[in-house]
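Case study: Thioredoxin family protein.
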Amino acid sequence: MEHIKDYDTLVDKMNQEKFVLYVMSVGCSVCHADLPKVERLLENYDLPSAKILVNEIPEAAGQLSLFTAPVIILNAQGREFHRQARIIDFEALEHRLSQLNDL
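Here is what the predicted structure looks like once written out:
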């Protein structure tokens, strides 16, 4: 999973036809625990993905309404398709990844 460190790159990626974003913050133990699970799920799909540390890109917090971490955002055709925050339901996430992959 690519690590994005600037807002312009993030915007370019999010405007792709399909894109998965994982948002973490420094010191968030849940973020670091969930990341490998998300990466394993993504191995089953041909979807571009990236992660950001919200502390490195503070403008992303405001523009994407990121009030907690972790957050996973699925985009389809430049628009938000699905979002989960704080407590990730991996069954629901897998279902949504499958839907996004099939679009």
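For the exam, be able to explain this: The first strand starts at residue 2 and ends at 3.
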